[in-house]
Amino acid sequence: MYDYVLAYDDTRVARDVYFFSLRRDALRGGAEFVFADELDVESLEFRIARIVEQWVKEKEI
C-alpha cells in the first residue's frame, strides 16, 4: 500500500477525467494524490483550466 501518489505537474494526469479517476482511486486505496508543486485542485481556476484543455484537445483531434 502507498501513502502518496505523486505527480510533478498536472499537464498530463489532469487531462479529461483522468485526474479525477486517479485521485478517486488513490483515496480509495488510502493514498493521498499530490503534486510536486502545490496546486489547489479544488479551485475554480484548476477546474476551468481542465475544461479549456479538454476543449482544445478535442479541437485538435
- Major sheet: order of its strands? 1-2
Low-confidence stretches: none
| First-residue to last-residue Cα separation | 37 Å
Counting helices, strands and paired strands, the structural category is alpha+beta
- SS strand fraction: 5-15%
The major pleated sheet works out as: 2 strands, parallel
Shape: elongated
Helix percent reads 40-55%
How are helices and strands ordered from N to C? Answer: EHEH
Helical stretch tally:
2
Q: How many beta-strand elements?
A: 2
Radius of gyration, CA atoms, in whole angstroms: 12 Å
- Mean pLDDT over the residues: 79
How many structural domains?
1
Describe the model:
Strands 1-2 form a two-stranded parallel sheet. It is elongated and about 40 Å long. It starts with a strand and ends with a helix. The model has no long low-confidence stretch (mean pLDDT 79). It has 61 residues and is α+β, with helices and mostly antiparallel strands. It contains two helices and two strands. It has one domain (4-60). Helix 1 links the parallel strand 1 (4-7) and strand 2.
How is the topology of this model organized?
Elements: E1 4-7, H1 18-28, E2 32-35, H2 44-60
Parallel strand pairs: 1-2
Descriptive labels:
two-stranded parallel ribbon, 2 helices, elongated
Brief synopsis:
This protein is α+β, with helices and mostly antiparallel strands and 61 residues long.
